[in-house]
Amino acid sequence: MSRVRIFGIGSSSGDDQAGWLTIDALLAAGLQCDDAMVIEKLDRPGANLIPLLDNTAWVILVDAMQGSGPAGRIQRFDQKDWPRYTKGLSTHGFGVIDALSLARELGRLPSRIDLYRIEIGSANPGEQAGDDIQAAAQQLARCIAADLIATLLQA
């Protein structure tokens, strides 16, 4: 059983790389995958996210979302906040909340899920992520790393 799984969800289209950039920043900071921790980039997993939640105590998800706020704004959502998360436009057809909601109905959610979104500007194929998205990914990676260290030291 993996104790923690961290997934950066996205694609190679412009700012939609936000989740992937966060994963890159975590790995560059020295977080390592092992039996207790999985760190992975996912390309718009849809319902395929559900089996990745199995046998895990804590899942951290980072996703890009177009909303009404400024590009680079970071938000954290607990299960009670999921309805607010859906007010933005997911860049994925069957989105993260859809998969998590289905997993909840199937009784397959881990005991802890931290869902982060980074608001994005454009998600055009072939574009690089904007500077604000790259900075947000670095900032979020630092926050996630600090939370992991604090939580795992208490365990």
Automatic annotation (TrEMBL):
Q: Name one GO molecular function term.
A: aspartic-type endopeptidase activity
Task: Give the similarity note.
Answer: Belongs to the peptidase A31 family.
Please give the PANTHER family that the UniProt record associates with this protein: HYDROGENASE 1 MATURATION PROTEASE, HYDROGENASE 2 MATURATION PROTEASE
Key words of the record: Aspartyl protease, Hydrolase, Protease
Q: Give any single GO term for biological process.
A: protein processing
Q: Which NCBIfam families match?
A: hydrog_prot (TIGR00072)
Q: Which organism is it from?
A: Thiobacillus denitrificans
SUPFAM superfamilies reported for this sequence = HybD-like
Q: Any keyword Protease?
A: yes
Q: Give the top-rank taxon of the lineage listed in the UniProt record for this protein.
A: Bacteria
CDD domains per the record?
Answer: H2MP
Q: Per its UniProt record, what InterPro entries does this chain match?
A: Pept_HybD-like_dom_sf (IPR023430), Peptidase_A31 (IPR000671)
Q: What is this protein called?
A: Hydrogenase maturation protease
Q: Which Pfam families does this one have? A: HycI
